[in-house]
Structures are given as C-alpha cells and as structure tokens.
Amino acid sequence: MIYTITANPAIDYVLQMNKMDLGAVNRVPDAQLLAGGKGINVSQILNQLKVPNTALGFVGGEIGKILEKQLTAKHINDHFTRIADQTRINVKIKAGEETELNAAGPKITAAETASFFQELAAVTKGDVVIISGSLPASLAKDFYDEIIRRVQAAGADFAIDTTGQQLLDSLPLHPLVVKPNHHELADLFHTTFKDEADLIAHGQKLLALGAQHVLVSMAGAGAILITPDHVYRSLAPKGKVKNSVGAGDSMLAGFVGAFTHQQDPVEAFQYGLACGSATAFSEDIAERAAIDALLPDIQISTIQ
Ligand SMILES: Nc1ncnc2c1ncn2[C@@H]1O[C@H](COP(=O)(O)OP(=O)(O)O)[C@@H](O)[C@H]1O
Ligand SMILES: O=P(O)(O)OC[C@H]1O[C@](O)(COP(=O)(O)O)[C@@H](O)[C@@H]1O
Questions:
Q1: Domain spanning 2-302, CATH class
Q2: Has 157 been annotated as catalytic?
Q3: Where would a tag sit more exposed on the chain, N or C end, judged by fewer CB atoms within 10 A?
C-alpha cells in the first residue's frame, strides 16, 4: 500500500485569462474549482496507474466539504482527519504565465493531530509513505520528522516532496526518492547552475547526504535521475501545455508507483516523465490514456 500525506490540502481556484492588470478590475472568462494539494494529486495519479493507495491529511470547514466531494468523485480512498478550521483556497492565475497564491492553511489542534497519527498507525512493513507539500503554520515544525520516525519504526519506506531545510533534514533518514525541481535544488545550495554538469553535481550531493534516488525535474526540459550507480537524463515529450500545476506531483507518483511494482529505477523514471508531462498536457491531473500515449515517446539516456 502507498499512503500519501497532504497536511495542507487546498481547493485550487484556477482563473484562465488572456492577461492580468494588477491594480485594475479584471474579467475572468474561465474559472474552475479543483481539488488541490500535492499528496492528493499524487493519489489521483496512483489511482490512474491502479496502484492501491490511501490519502491522509487534514480537511475542514465549508471549503473542506467541497474538497471532500471532489475526493469522492475522484474515487480517492480518503482517510483524512476532519478538523474544525477551514481548508485553504489557493489561487492559480493563468494569464500567459502562471502565478500561484498559496495560502498558509488552517489551525490544527493537538487532538486533531493525535487523530491523524491514529490513521498513520495503519502503515505496516513494505508500505511507502509519500509526504508532500507545505505544512499548515499551526503544525509543529518537526511534524514531518515525527511522521518519518513512525513510518520507519513500522518498517515502511518514505518519499518526500518538500523544499529548503525540511528537505535537507529528511536526507539522513534515506528517503526512497526526493524530487526537487531545478530551481528548488539551486535554492537548497544558494546557487545558480552554470551548466548541466553543475546541476548533476548538486543533485549528487543529495544522494551523498542520504537520499536513495534523486529526481530533478526541469519542466519542459525534462528531468535527470541520479541513482547510486548511474545518472540518467530524458527530454520531456512534446505537446501542448494546458496546465502545469501538479506536473511535479504526477512525476513523483509515476516514479514511486512504478518503482514499488518492479524496483527498476529506469522504468520508474519513464513512468515519472510520462505522468508529469501527461498532466502538463491535460486540464487537470492526467488520466491513464494520456499517460499511456506518452510512455513510448520517453527516451532515457545514461549519461554517467
Ligand atoms: N512544459 C512542459 N512540457 C512537457 N512536460 C512538462 C512540462 N512541464 C512539466 N512537464 C513534465 O512534468 C515534470 C515535472 O515538472 P516540473 O515543472 O519540473 O515540476 P514541479 O511542478 O515540481 O515544479 C517534468 O520533468 C516534465 O516531465
Ligand atoms: O503545499 P504547497 O506547497 O502550498 O502547494 C500546494 C499546491 O501544490 C499543488 O498540489 C500543485 O503542485 P505542483 O504544481 O508544485 O506540482 C496545488 O494543487 C496546490 O495548490
């Protein structure tokens, strides 16, 4: 079983417009409310790949009810902890380029946190727990550390998609995979990359610090996979980008979903790329047919 954790899910309010003028009234021809939150996106792709999974996290209030309805409609096996405060709304403005406004999230009480840990107690040996996204400001800074401690005590593996110090702190605990995008990787080391070799050298530092696999995504330029034995590269397949929100989550889901099936990092990389790009080419998180259509187009080369 794979468990996804979305401590701070959202309703994504996606506004499509030709251009936006700051400080003026803008009319928005196309607006949608979508279930958001990185772990939820991961669960959506795992469902498409028919990989059994359970989604954990916190949900509450009227916005939470909208989210719950969407989770039901998407057949997500949801064991979210219900909370008194309101799930957040994140605003995604697509006006040529994409601007994202991600809110801080709800207040979560000690009793609600304890209920979450009761749900997490279902994790057993051989499971993989995927931890994704930001923490609501009210949760303890070491919330993810506590999850990892419990998951490892149960004999399960974990993957983590977070940034900054939280990501660095998780590395000595040997995550199955970490998936920074190239900007996040550069920010981790307070640098900008001179070239691809420089990027790979920094990705390899995450491996040296403890990650089992490092997946560095580069949006339309594809991705690099670093394993203890090799470095692999693939361009992204070509297509018309409709919505790149959730592309990174989809890539992580494809990688972990395929890896738990065959333990083959190259095949997992291929699925990761197909899922990431299929989501970029879809209005919402990708469906199976779009993923399958891209799989034969993924060309992976061994570069080290
Ligand atoms: N414009 C795009 N064209 C094709 N594939 C894309 C595009 N944007 C994202 N992808 C796919 O999704 C993966 C993850 O995207 P990326 O934007 O790097 O992640 P994140 O959402 O975490 O920033 C990429 O490696 C690629 O496979
Ligand atoms: O938890 P965070 O970092 O605030 O991110 C939440 C946002 O991430 C998303 O899951 C999208 O993630 P990516 O585009 O980075 O893959 C949105 O659906 C959601 O609004």
A1: alpha beta
A2: no
A3: C
